[in-house]
Amino acid sequence: MIILISGGTNNGKSYHAKKITANLCTKRNLPLYYVATAIATTQEMKERIAKSQKDREGLGFTTIELTVDIEKLSETVKNDGIFLINNVTALLSNEFSTENQTTVYKEQKVIDGLKEIVRKKGSDFIIISDYMFSNSVTYDENTDNFCRALGRINAEMAKIADVVIEVSYHNLIIHKGEDLLAEYTTV
């Protein structure tokens, strides 16, 4: 099963993703993997990463750090499991920080990498992404390109996802797959 969870920053996406992941683990009896994509480049990010690590303590996650090249997850973990990928926004940001490739290339690299790993049979994927591309703020060209790329990545992931959830102020809005989600979890 592929679940896409999107929403604004600090709206409860990770909380709900961990809850859904734990429910899936109970039902499916597979190992849990937390795929961390953030890089601690600022003090705020260091604090957010530390909080995330503390929040995962005792939940049974094996943490895998993949800040770029998400397709390498298939090489890193050979067995089936439940994979919580947190998050696509950081992953894309990290890809934007790499060598001189075009925005289109970096966007497609993330899309292709995510599609490649979710083909892993016998595994479930909970993919977290931010929803930062629909507000009325005017950005500089680079930020605008980033937001558009993230929007297109989310659209591509929504197409292949079995369940699509938007989180707004800790409230779940299920856009796709409500019956399937209810069958496997209690949210």
Which structural category fits the helices and strands?
A: alpha/beta
The termini sit apart by 16 Å
Q: How many structural domains?
A: 1
Number of strands: 7
CATH homologous superfamily identity: P-loop containing nucleotide triphosphate hydrolases
Give the H and E element order.
EHEHEHEHHEHEEH
Rounded mean pLDDT is: 90
Helix % is: 40-55%
Indicate the CATH class.
Alpha Beta
State the strand order across the main sheet.
3-2-4-5-1-6-7
Q: What kind of sheet is the major sheet? A: 7 strands, mixed
List keywords for this structure.
single chain, alpha/beta, Rossmann fold, seven-stranded mixed β-sheet, 7 helices, globular
Care to describe what's here?
Helices cover 46% and strands 21% of the residues. A hairpin with a 2-residue loop joins β6 and β7. It is an alpha/beta fold and 187 residues long. A seven-stranded mixed β-sheet has the order 3-2-4-5-1-6-7, sandwiched between helices. 36% of the residues are buried. It has one domain: 3-Layer(aba) Sandwich (Rossmann fold), CATH 3.40.50. It has seven helices and seven strands; from the N terminus they run βαβαβαβααβαββα.
